[in-house]
Amino acid sequence: MRAETAARSRTIVGHAVLLLGVLITIFPFYWMFVMASNTTGDIFAYPPKLIPGSHLWENMNKVFDGIDFWGSMGITVVAATSVTFLVLLFDSLAAFAFAKYDFPGRKVLFWIVLATFMIPMQLALVPQFVTLAWLGWVGSLKALIIPGAANAFGIFWMRQYAQGAIADELIQASRVDGAGFFRQWWTVGLPVLRPGLAFLGIFTFFHIWNDYLWPLIVMTDPGKVTLQVAVQQLNGVYTTDQSMVIAGALMSVIPLIGVFLIGSRHFIANLAAGAMKF
C-alpha cells in the first residue's frame, strides 16, 4: 500500500510539474493575444487586463492598411520553404558522406565545417553582402535563399544522428547489391534519418521565418521585404500603436504554430517507427 501510495504521489507531482511547464510555455502566446485584442491604452493600464478584448479585428485591419502583409508573407514563405528544402538536401548528403564514407581528408573537412559553425554570424554579413552585390543578387529572393542553402549546424547534427542510426551492415549490403552513393543515401539513409530531418526542417524553417537582420540588410526595396521586417515598419517615428504592432506579430506567429504541429507529428511518428524497428 505504501509503495502504491508513493508511486501515485510521484505520478501526481510529475503531472503537476508538466502542467505547470505547459502553462508557463503557453502564457506568452496568450498574453500576446490579449494585448493584440485590446487598445494601446489598455496595454499600459494598471492593473493589466488578463482577458482578451474586442479590438482584435480592428487591429488586424490596421496591420493590413499599414503594410503589404500578404505580399511580405508570400516572400517569407518562399524563402523559408526553399531554404529548408535545400538545407535538408545538401546537409543530409554531406552528413551521410561524413558518417558512412571513409575518404581522404574527411576529418580535416569536417573540422573546417565545425570551424565555420563557430564564426559569429555578424562577422559574415559584410563579405556575404559584398559577394551578393558583385553577383547582382541584392534585393532579390536569391539573396535570401542561396546563402542559407547549407549550414554547419545541420551537417553536424545529421552526421551525429547518422553515425548512430544507420547500421554499417545496411551500407555494406547495399554496396554488395551494386548501389552507388546516391542510391544508398536515398534508399538506406533517408528512411532512417527522417526523425533527424524533421527536427532540422522545423528548426531551419523557424530560423528563416524569424530572421530579421539579414533580410533587413539585403532586401533593399521597402516594398519587397520579409514579414518580420514588414511588421517592424508598423512602428511609428514619434508614436506607435502598440496593439497594432502586437497584432502584426501575432499574425506572423500563427503560421509557425501550424508548421510546428505538422512537423512535430511527423517527428514523433518517425521516431516511434524507428524505435519499433530497432
Write a structural description.
77% of the residues lie in helices and 0% in strands. Helix 4 (69-100) packs across helix 8 (152-165), helix 4 packs antiparallel against helix 10 and helix 10 (181-210) packs antiparallel against helix 13. It has 13 helices and no strands. It starts with a helix and ends with a helix. The chain has helices at residues 2-36, 40-43, 56-66, 69-100, 106-118, 121-135, 142-145, 152-165, 168-176, 181-210, 213-218, 227-232, 242-277. The protein is mostly helical. The longest helix has 36 residues, at 242-277.
Secondary structure layout plus pairing:
Blueprint: H1 2-36, H2 40-43, H3 56-66, H4 69-100, H5 106-118, H6 121-135, H7 142-145, H8 152-165, H9 168-176, H10 181-210, H11 213-218, H12 227-232, H13 242-277
